[in-house]
Amino acid sequence: MLLALRKPWALHTPQLWAEDGSIFLTQDEQMGLRAWWEPYNGYLHLLPRLIAWTASRVADVAWWPAIYNGLAFAINVALFARLASPRVRLPAKPGLLLAFVLVVGTGEVLINVTNLQWVTAFFLLLQVFTSRPETWGQRAGDLLILAVVGLNGPFALLICPLLAWRAARERHADNVAALVVLAACAAVQGWLVTRSGTTLALHEGAEPFRAWHALSVVGVRLVSWPVLGPAVVKATPLWLHGGVALAVLGPLLLRAFRPDPRREVRAPLAAALILITAACVYRARADTWNADGLVNGDRYFYLPRVLFAWLVVLEWNARPRAVAWTARLLCVAGVLTHLPYFMLPAPPDYQWARHCDPIRRGEPANIYTLPEGWWIEYPGRPPEKR
To answer: Most buried pick, 133, 233, 263, 354, via CB within 10 A?
Structure first.
């Protein structure tokens, strides 16, 4: 319910988002099943390909945005169900679930197909905490999730070391099978990245990496903005937030690795936060940003922001009690600060049903879609498919 309320227009007035149309829709028509294995940005996006293929074969083009967004919403809900499952051995699940929709952000990763990889990456992480399957159905389901999600974005490369850690600690065939499947996906995605010639960083300039500047962006996106709000961020110099990152993230990560009954939960989450944040900061080359308007590259910080929230939630019952109350205060401040911005404002309605007829006829056209200023350069359907 909260997910739907956060972005209601994505469901009641669905529109395609960015690569939904310009890549996944058009390449499905141009290439058919071959598009499933066509890399984009250097790696595979299997789920958007499957959704585009399904929509084009079950409904008229006017319904495609509804199918795209509806299936993206359903996959979000499936992730919530997976986390809520008794097989996933994580404490404080209500707090962990709420983090997905209550953490601040532009909402660009929610309820759209293009950015599904940022949400489904949590399926891979949850496997680290999932108990051994008891039936063949559970076993097949675990491996299918790993295979499909592992081929939907590059996150298999980052989560694979955590599954290897678990397999080394709990040595049985199911952990080995899970590791083999995810390692195979990581190998495919890694091979495609190296073969595609796509640079790992979006910024191709020769500027040296500015560590403190990058740390300051991390401080803004993970701590200052989520807890204190945009007004505080805009009123303070960017460099100051590097200190915020050290003051908050440093102790939180150190506590995650301390000897404690919950270290087996906290430590993998902290390791995931470090790995994913480092990869995303480098990919976005946040150190080259002259200013941070809190919009640019927000998708790169969604996973780290949720993981940061998870680590804070897991300190609710910490000892000493001062730490627990600090964690609770951070969560309450984060919710109250952003409550006025919870429902994301509706974008322009480009009237997809009125303008999609060229796709229905298979004729070339430029069709506007989201985000604002984006359009689909539809090349027309290949003659043999008309």
So the answer is: 233
Stretch among 224-228, 258-262, 263-267 having the lowest mean pLDDT = 258-262
Mark whether 297 and 226 lie in a shared domain.
yes
Within the chain, what is the greatest distance between any pair of CA atoms? 70
Q: Which residue has the higher pLDDT, 289 or 183?
A: 183
40 and 183 together in one domain: yes
Cα–Cα distance, 79 to 263 (Å, whole number): 24
Task: Indicate the residue among 196, 226, 246 that finishes a domain.
Answer: 196
Report the pLDDT value the prediction gives residue 195, as an integer from 0 to 100.
Answer: 86
Reading the block at residue 329, the tokens are: 């205060």
Q: Who's near 303: CB < 8 A, 6+ residues apart?
A: 118, 121, 122, 276, 280
For residue 65, give its domain range: 11-196
Name the residue among 370, 374, 324, 378 with its Cα closest to residue 346.
370
Q: Which H helix or E strand runs over 315?
A: none
Say which amino acid occupies 348. P
Residue labelled with tokens 């480009």: 350
Is there a single domain that holds both residue 233 and residue 313? yes
pLDDT band per the 50, 70, 90 thresholds, residue 304: very high
Residue range 229-256: average pLDDT?
93
Contact indicator for 132, 142 with CB cutoff of 8 Å: no
Q: How far is CA 1 from CA 5, 48, 74, 273, in A?
A: 6, 24, 12, 27
Asked if the structure places residue 364 within a domain, the reply is no
Average pLDDT over residues 230-234: 91
Q: Is the separation of the CB atoms in 73 and 112 below 8 Å?
A: no
Of 108, 109, 84, 88, the residue nearest 98 (C-alpha): 84
Same-domain pairing of 310 and 337: yes
292 lies in the same domain as 187: no
Q: Per residue in 147-206, pLDDT tens?
A: 999 999 999 999 999 999 999 999 999 999 999 999 999 999 999 988 876 556 666 667
Q: How many domains does the chain have?
A: 2
